[in-house]
Amino acid sequence: LFTNVIFYRSINSTQMAAQKQVSDGMTHGTLVVADEQTNGKGRLGRTWHSEKDSGVWMSLIVKPDIAFEQAPQLTLLTAVSVTRAIEKLSKVNVTIKWPNDLLINGKKVCGILTEMQADTDRLLSVIIGIGLNVNHKQFSDPLTDIATSLFIETGKTYDRSQLIGGILDEFTKLYQLYLDDGFAIIKPLWEAHASSTGKKISARTATTVIEGIALGIDNEGVLLLEDEAGKVHKIYSADIDLH
Ligand code: BTN
């Protein structure tokens, strides 16, 4: 799948570089990777700290033949791919916090940012940004309590290209399964790592905060949340706090 690789020692953001590739006509199967990002982007306009040589900072460009509404499923698929790659190489247990945070011992080790390009009703391409903290020795405030790295959790340093290879292998496998058989094949793999199912959470959406028990995801990858009155809410996009 990823035969076209664009590598930077330092760049503002692999996500922005990938966007430029897409507007220049490069779409399916391109990988943009950097040793350092000077302006890494997180979800909801946040900054993503991407120090030199300490993590995997990369963006994948794919053009799946799926409906616009299904694109978020690729975030879940990517979360499973990265989880598997980490577990294979480091033997550490990774959980997924819906939709896109990977946690080790409750702290965030990886974030995924999925951006779509579409015209009125057609999905044109998807850029999936992956930020994985690998060899950081420590984080400074205010990240200390919420962020972690593979080194901090296992006491070992990792070869970043081996991790990239592992992630791309897993992604390529799952992506093919997904295109052949749909999200139903990914759902149980995602659920096996879900950190929130059955737990009390609050979901902060753009307009409101809903508290309740996370029931899991539905067949589309949408989060189901049951509030105290027993009403089940479908959450398409939100920040989740685990209680
Ligand atoms: C999040 O907020 O959890 C998502 C973080 C995504 C970070 C990655 S690092 C590679 C790619 N380039 C960016 O600028 N952001 C994503």
UniProtKB/TrEMBL annotation:
GO terms for biological process: protein lipoylation; regulation of DNA-templated transcription. Biotin binds at residues 37, 108. Keywords: ATP-binding, Biotin, DNA-binding, Ligase, Nucleotide-binding, Repressor, Transcription, Transcription regulation. GO terms for molecular function: ATP binding; biotin--[biotin carboxyl-carrier protein] ligase activity; DNA binding; transferase activity. Residues 1-179 form the BPL/LPL catalytic domain. GO terms for cellular component: cytoplasm. It catalyses: biotin + L-lysyl-[protein] + ATP = N(6)-biotinyl-L-lysyl-[protein] + AMP + diphosphate + H(+). Its EC number is 6.3.4.15. Acts both as a biotin--[acetyl-CoA-carboxylase] ligase and a repressor. Belongs to the biotin--protein ligase family. This is Bifunctional ligase/repressor BirA. The gene is birA.
